[in-house]
């Protein structure tokens, strides 16, 4: 089976500003559609597919494409670059980063590549949402679309995959080691807040779980220093409080970014990675690839038997 690689430019608009988001597509002859909101895909798929390391492309986007899914890998930092800046690989961008630019600040402030950013520009939650909605709109416009769409992502992308799933048009979501959900630090914020109580008028993802209408699978490593035990416990409690349909997987020795092979900084775990991909295939295969109609929310509790 051969994987077709292409891209499309999708217009987006948020906070009074218009932009164009280049979205790489990976597919074979398929009818099922998946958004890929991977943290590194967003950055490396800036305007071309080539900067993404080949081993990482094989690990998920191409593997999912061979499993009969179209992968639309949208790039959320497109508002901070011009289309002339297409030659910078992921590694090049890393060398240009300031010491703190790999922190969560770059998710709302444009310190990711200082010389390419707009002074004072901020990536807002509304802007993230506009990008995801535009991606869904595009996928639904395709003649091959079945109307069944899922989202998946890693790290920041894991968070954005969950946030994208707040859109009721997304019926399945697999999120890998999602950052910034538990501490409400995506987009502009005053300080981290891991309280179980939502701030007034909160638009943070963890406080909007009641909007999740599809099925969610969240995957973490217990040794993840970005999402500690308390953070994972908060996410799980909030999902239960919102009565979401979800699975929650924690691997004993896995650290953060354990899937991202040579970009994992020594944390890559191929055995756990294989299991995690099977989790994605199980959920997407069951929810997106079978014509079972809408989920029945009135299923009776299981009988208590030995």
TrEMBL record:
All copies of the Dienelactone hydrolase domain together span 126-287
Sorted keywords for this record are:
Hydrolase
* Keyword DNA-binding among UniProt keywords: no
Query: Where would you find the membrane-spanning parts of this chain?
Result: none
* Gene Ontology terms for molecular function: hydrolase activity
Q: Which PANTHER family match?
A: CARBOXYMETHYLENEBUTENOLIDASE-RELATED, PTHR47562
Q: What is this protein called?
A: Dienelactone hydrolase family protein
């Amino acid at each position: 089976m051969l994987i077709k690689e292409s891209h499309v430019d999708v217009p987006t608009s948020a906070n009074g500003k218009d932009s164009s988001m280049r979205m790489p597509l990976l597919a074979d002859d398929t009818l099922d559609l998946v958004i890929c909101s991977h943290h590194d895909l967003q950055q490396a798929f800036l305007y071309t597919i080539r900067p993404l390391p080949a081993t990482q492309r094989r690990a998920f986007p191409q593997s999912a494409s061979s499993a009969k899914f179209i992968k639309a890998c949208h790039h959320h930092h497109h508002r901070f670059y011009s289309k002339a800046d297409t030659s910078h690989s992921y590694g090049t961008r890393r060398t240009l980063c300031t010491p703190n630019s790999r922190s969560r600040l770059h998710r709302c402030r444009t310190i990711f590549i200082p010389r390419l950013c707009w002074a004072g520009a901020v990536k807002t939650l509304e802007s993230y949402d506009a990008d995801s909605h535009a991606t869904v709109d595009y996928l639904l416009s395709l003649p091959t679309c079945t109307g069944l769409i899922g989202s998946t992502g890693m790290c920041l992308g894991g968070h954005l995959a969950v946030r994208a799933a707040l859109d009721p048009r997304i019926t399945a979501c697999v999120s890998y080691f999602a950052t910034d959900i538990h501490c409400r630090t995506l987009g502009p914020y005053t300080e981290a807040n891991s309280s179980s109580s939502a701030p007034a008028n909160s638009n943070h993802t963890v406080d909007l779980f009641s909007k999740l209408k599809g099925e969610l699978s969240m995957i973490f490593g217990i040794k993840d220093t970005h999402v500690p035990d308390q953070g994972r416990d908060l996410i799980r409690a909030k999902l239960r409080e919102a009565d979401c349909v979800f699975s929650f997987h924690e691997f004993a020795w896995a650290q953060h970014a354990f899937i991202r092979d040579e970009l994992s900084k020594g944390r890559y775990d191929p055995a756990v990675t294989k299991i995690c991909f099977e989790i994605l295939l199980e959920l997407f295969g069951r929810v997106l690839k079978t014509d079972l109609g809408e989920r029945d929310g009135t299923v009776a509790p299981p009988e208590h038997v030995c």
